[in-house]
Amino acid sequence: MGAMATALLASTAAHAQMKPEDMVEARKAGYQFMAWNMGKIKAQVIDGKEPFDQAKVAAAANAIAAIANSGMGALYSPET
Description:
By secondary structure, the protein is mainly α. The chain has one domain. Helix content is 69%, strand content 0%. It has helices at residues 2-9, 12-17, 20-45, 54-68. α1 (2-9) crosses α3 (20-45) and α3 (20-45) runs antiparallel to α4 (54-68). It starts with a helix and ends in a 12-residue tail after the last helix.
């Protein structure tokens, strides 16, 4: 799912050519990917369900940042 979200969010030109329903699906995928990574961080840092691993927390945070800074705003159009 993460690779798909990254690929869909990578190109601003691609956003202009996407159908509104595809834009909505790409947004959902991006948010689901971020939520999954937030869950990984929460399990280690907040809940203690997994042993703390700084490298894994950093990787999850970097994945969230990558999607958040990928130009997701272009996936919001008046048609959606």
